[in-house]
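During the second half of the funding period, the structural biology subgroup turned its attention to how the target accommodates small molecules. The most pressing case was 16G, which had performed well in the primary screen but for which no bound structure existed. We therefore specified the complex as follows and requested a full 3D prediction, including the ligand pose.
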Amino acid sequence: MSDAADQIFAALKQSSQSGAPLYLQLRKSIEDAVNRGLIGPGDALPSERDIATKADISRVTVRKAVQDLVKGGILVQRHGSGTFVAPRMERVEQSLSRLTSFTEDMARRGMAVRSAWLDRGLYAPSPDEMMVLGLSSSELVARVARLRIANDTPLAIERASLSASVLPDPAGIGSSLYAALELTGNRPVRAVQRISAANLGEGDARLLEVPPGIAGLHIERISYLASGKVIEFTRSIYRGDAYDFVAELRLTGPSEEGRS
Ligand code: 16G
């Protein structure tokens, strides 16, 4: 048996005096082994049976601890091949001061970008879309919903809405919405972005290949043309374990305060 497995059991023995339920003690021992780097991303966990025999606890208890760690995204289970320490995401640091597209952001980092289509078409607008895009109920909205993938890792689900007069053929945008808008002189020059915390629901979590309920970021971007017209209303879910949004802040003296 590996050193890591021995360490897990040693830690478990030490904590067995703590009086906490056994599955919690086991969960903590495994979590500590991962955090201390004794078992690293991609390493296999000993089998449920081995853990149960060696630690002298029931397989039900082992399963409960392991399931909890799978739910928390610390372990992953692959059918037929066992349980592994989850791969660690390299976090993407994203500036909040530049109005760039997903394609540009990832290309700058040398990452291979692709998207999976979730929806594209012309629809009757929702009340939100009518209000933000200034559409009447007789006009149509173009919706472009994509799973955004970089280096084969799904990072975000983006649902963009634009006036159909700006994007009459949503299926024809190719791989970049902003590149398509640029071609018709409609690339936004300014945007307001609102970021809030969200726990991922079943469907979104499945698409992003993370356990349901883990932390995500809900981002709403409303972007404008130089004329002040709203061009894009996009609601996205980003993986919380993959993104750091970074804003630069400056001290404003009394002389600058009145200007903004
Ligand atoms: C970014 C924008 C999104 C925009 C997309 C265009 C955020 C949160 N969202 O991901 O609003 O629609 O870029 O990307 O930054 P594309 O040109 O690669 O399709």
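Two results from this model are relevant to the next phase. Residues 101-103, 158, 160, 176-179, 219, 221, 232, 234, 236 surround 16G (CB under 6 Å). The CA atoms of residues 56 and 134 lie 66 Å apart.
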